[in-house]
Design a protein that fits this description.
Blueprint (H helix, E strand, L loop, with lengths): L2 E3 H34 L5 H24 L6 H19 L13 H10 L2 H20 L6 H13 L4 H90 L7 H30 L3 E4 H15 L5 E3 L7 E4 L1 H17 L4 E9 L2 E8 L6 H5 L4 E3 L6 H13 L3 E6 L7 E8 L6
Parallel strand pairs: 3-5
Antiparallel strand pairs: 1-7, 2-4, 5-6, 6-9, 8-9
């Protein structure tokens, strides 16, 4: 079963921005070598070119990795950014160290890290970049061996030769030009890479917020529809009773005693009124997104009626008695539990069991068991944290159910029913609530 976490999806989206940053850095390095070579002779040009090649290979491999098989944790992403700093530092070591105006390239992986990785990882990368900069101040290869030999020769002869003067002027001019180029290119890369990535993340957050609002509204509508269907089912019994009584009254003589029948009709009408009031209250709660405090027995009875209407042929065992506890629920929680029951019925239509227990005074657990093929091991470790690709369209249900349960202060857990991985037990852990009228 193929699945992707939200972080993996984010890594896939960021892969091309990382590739763009790294290829831009390689291009800057190659241009710097070409421009510098026109003024002076680089002392370690071959090593610098090999490091550019290695950095280009890293950029391509990292892009393929993040696109085809994105990492499951943030640590590999941090390690690749650390490798960026190391390769840039090695290139700077062979091209003048801290005297190289392109030393500011060390800031680019840090800017990307602030967007992609947690703050503690970004702080670690920052410390590493400062350490690399410090080491480049202490140890580095000279940018040109000719300039140093000319300066030594001029010092020993007691006069400044024209060649040494020209080399010094070229180095100074090259450094000033490099500082300007570094500033311009760093600003452009920050805007294109970090700015675009941050804009994309803000857009994803906006779409996620809109999706949650749409999902909440849909769940409220579905819950209200289920409540309406349940109320209609409940109204069937008193309405049939009233119909029979009316037919019976039509056949009675005028002087017959009908007080008992009238009392029965009155009680049935009162029952209809109670059901309609419950439907009105459910509609108001769905509109205002209010939490409703119910006993566990009442809530599970309501869910049982909804499942009977939705899946009348499903073999669901409601294992009573339920603990005498209260719970706060709303329309979205009902739909979340129904989503889990739908998954269980799809996997195991011949047998599904629902039970409840109270492990302590502050918690209740709703347990849904099935005898299906079971979940993947990754989903058992962290149910609801993955978006599952499913041909039946139910892959996102587990994720949304987990989000709804978590919003109400609960947890969703999963375990396998057997050693061979068959059968799944979903445990919905919810906080208890004080009952209020």
């Amino acid at each position: 079963m193929e699945w992707l976490t939200l972080s993996q999806t984010g890594f896939q989206g960021a892969a091309r921005y990382l590739l763009g940053m790294r290829l831009a850095i390689v291009t800057i390095m190659l241009l710097a070598i070409a421009v510098t070579d026109t003024f002076i002779t680089l002392s370690h040009r071959a090593e610098a070119l090999l490091l550019c090649l290695a950095y280009g290979v890293l950029a391509t491999l990292a892009w393929l990795w993040f696109t085809r098989r994105p990492p499951q944790s943030i640590l590999p992403v941090t390690m690749t950014l650390g490798l960026d700093l190391l390769l840039i530092g090695c290139w700077l070591y062979n091209t003048g160290g801290y005297t190289n105006p392109l030393v500011s390239l060390l800031l680019l992986p840090l800017a990307i890290a602030l967007v992609l990785v947690p703050l503690n990882h970004a702080i670690g990368l920052t410390i590493g970049s400062v350490l690399i900069y410090t080491l480049l101040m202490l140890w580095h290869q000279p940018i040109s061996s000719d300039a140093i030999s000319d300066t030594i020769f001029a010092t020993r002869s007691g006069a400044v030769s024209g060649m040494a003067h020209n080399h010094g002027a070229n180095l100074a001019q090259l450094h000033l030009i490099g500082m300007w180029v570094t500033f311009v290119l760093t600003a452009v890369i920050l805007v294109l890479a970090v700015g675009t990535l941050a804009h994309q993340l803000r857009g994803q957050q906006l779409r996620l917020s809109q999706s949650r609002e749409t999902r909440l509204r849909d769940e409220q509508i579905i819950s209200l529809g289920l409540s309406s269907a349940a109320i209609a089912h409940r109204l069937g019994t008193p309405m049939n009773t009233l119909t029979l009584l009316v037919e019976e009254l039509k056949t009675l003589p005028p002087d017959a005693d009908i007080r008992a029948d009238l009392e029965l009709m009155s009680s049935q009408l009162a029952l209809c009124g109670q059901h309609l009031q419950q439907l009105s209250a459910s509609a108001m709660q769905a509109k205002l997104s209010q939490l409703e405090t119910l006993s566990l027995e009442q809530w599970l009875q309501r869910l049982q009626e909804s499942t009977t209407l939705l899946w009348p042929e499903a073999n669901i065992h409601w294992q009573r008695p339920f603990p005498p506890r209260n719970v706060q629920v709303d329309a979205t929680l009902d739909q979340a539990v129904l989503n889990l029951l739908a998954n269980a019925i799809t996997a195991s239509p011949q047998w599904v069991a629902v039970s409840a227990q109270a492990p302590d005074a502050n918690c209740i657990e709703i347990i849904v068991e099935d005898q299906g093929d079971g979940l993947a091991s990754a989903l058992l470790d962290s149910p609801g944290s993955c978006i599952v690709n499913s041909e039946t369209g139910m892959g996102v249900g587990l994720f949304l159910s987990n989000a709804t349960i978590g919003r109400l202060g609960g947890k969703l857990k999963a375990r396998s029913n057997s050693t061979d991985g068959r059968g799944t037990t979903m445990i919905i852990e919810l906080p208890t609530a004080e009952y209020s009228l």
